[in-house]
Protein 1
Amino acid sequence: MGLWSRFKRSMRALLGGVIERTEDPELVLQQTIREMRDRVPELNNSVAQVMATERLLAKNKDRLETQVVDYDSKIKAAIKLGRDDMATAYIGQLQQAQLDLQKTKQQLQAAEMASKQALKARDNYMLQMQRRSAEAMQLINQSKQARLQEQLAQTMETFQLGDDASTFNEMRDKIDRRSAAAEAKMQLGAASVDNQLHEIEQEAMNLQLQDKLLEYKREMGLLPGSTTPQQGQLPAAQTEGAEDNSGRTM
């Protein structure tokens, strides 16, 4: 293989790769749909021309049939008038009209067939265009979905989950530490209140005991200003206890 052939092959491969990368499927499909729709007026114009030819031939056939009938009447009239020369001339014109009528009928048959084929081709093209348009729209939607998936994949590739995870873990630790400190303070506060209540109860009990002790000392005359009980005399509390015992004994 020559150097020039290798160079052309490389250039075709390079240009093909560039076109392949820059070619947007959505734009290509949309352009294809537009081109198919743009061909519809041209196709309708072609069908209209074929149908116009058919209409023209049909009119020519009707005109020639009228001429044949007219020539036939003129031939008969010339013969009745004894004008064989004129009858002969009309016969020649009649034969030519009959030939033209025969050819026109054949052409009309061909034109009618061509019109039917043109209409059928136009209808087939319209159906094909509708089917291709629907298929193109489906492919365009698939292309859009694929592009969105590609963008999502690129976003997921650049998304660093570890950074956010470390942030969440750090904030979770801070919140846990704050919660633990708050719970500890609440426990300490509750313990302090309990201690205070216990101290108050203990103090109240001590005061009761002191009052009881003073009462005993006062009854025993051990406090200044108190009455000393006589020998053998029991304190009031003991005397009341003895009377109660004697009463129960009786």
Protein 2
Amino acid sequence: MNRIKLGIIQVNHDKSVEVGDAFPDDAHRFRDLFDQQEQRYRYRVYMTIGGELPEDIHEQDAYLITGSPLSVLDEHVFSDGLSNFIQRCDAQLKPLVGTCFGHQAIALALGGKVERAGVGYNVGIEHTRFIQSRSWMLPQRKSLPMYVFHEDQVTHIPDGCDLLGSSAQCSIASFAKGNHIFTTQAHPEFTHPFMNCVLNAMEAKLEPDTVSRARASMELQHEGAVFAEWCTRFFQENLNE
């Protein structure tokens, strides 16, 4: 079986003692997640904070943009370059997955809208309920429970995109464009120890009810591994076209 060359666009540069120093970075979490599967990958991590983005989008077979504690609504040193990269992937139908910050960045780059959520932070394990499916979404699920931790959310998807899934606190929790873009507001790569660490670190900045709901929700089983399987089939379908 040929390895898929996956470029991980890392936009999380957390250097905090509480979280950044306590756990491996996003790229490691995604590699751990994808390496549970039979399909093998060859990874290349692009650190956007250091100005790293693919010069040629055909350097890799496919790409994934990670989440981040940063807000996509703020201007970052990599913002313009990331937007341009997303637009090039779209123009050349390069398979691209976006999670959390990546989901929002793709929406903005392609003409959608992102805003602060009126409900405040959405934290814990939340079900994304899928109203549409795609051929790569196997095994089939009408709903996927996954970790979430966000204050911003997509409020308008770009023209030409289809809404795939919504959650109780996020009406645009997943969308797709054609067969080359696939996104989720959730964090399929999170683990319980990591989520618990982030929640502890952020607790003072959150409403008590938000913390209580988050901790209660974490009793649920999360299915980020199923979303990873969907991503693999999404990549495979593109590469086999």
